[in-house]
Amino acid sequence: MTKVLVVDDASFMRMRMNKLLTENGYEVDEAENGLDALDKYQKDSYDLVIMDITMPAMDGIEAVKHIKDLDPEAKIIMCSAIGQQQMVIEALKAGAKDFVVKPFQPDRIMESIKRVLS
């Protein structure tokens, strides 16, 4: 089973993403910020990370850099609100494979996941 780490400081976003992914046959773990995500990534292996950009403790861009240092093959999709284009560009430069605008459309997330994992 494909294992996905969902990283977002908003619990309702994690819950919504968890429900969508679980319904589509993915195993899901959650982290509430970049620091928590990095800790989990060091202890476990994930096929994919879906990460918010703006979070306390460690933002998504920093977390992407650290995860890519640990695992250059890590597959990461960023989620960002409209108006964060510069941050999205930074995240892609840091190693993210794709980005999805929040609030996300389920079809768009699933399309991105299939593309990144293939």
Write the layout of secondary structure elements.
Layout (H helix, E strand, L loop, with lengths): L2 E5 L3 H13 L3 E5 L2 H10 L4 E5 L7 H11 L5 E6 L3 H10 L3 E5 L3 H12 L1
Parallel strand pairs: 1-2, 1-3, 3-4, 4-5
Write up this protein.
With 118 residues, the chain is an alpha/beta fold. The chain has a single domain (3-117), classed as Response regulator (Rossmann fold, 3-Layer(aba) Sandwich). The protein contains five helices and five strands; from the N terminus they run βαβαβαβαβα. The two termini are 15 Å apart.
* Main beta-sheet strand count, sense and barrel state: 5 strands, parallel
Name given to the CATH architecture: 3-Layer(aba) Sandwich
Structural class: alpha/beta
**Which stretches are low in confidence, meaning pLDDT under 50 for 5 or more residues running?**
none
Give the oligomer, counting copies of the same chain as homo and different chains as hetero.
single chain
How are helices and strands ordered from N to C?
EHEHEHEHEH
Condensed summary:
47% of the residues lie in helices and 22% in strands. By secondary structure, the protein is of the alpha/beta class.
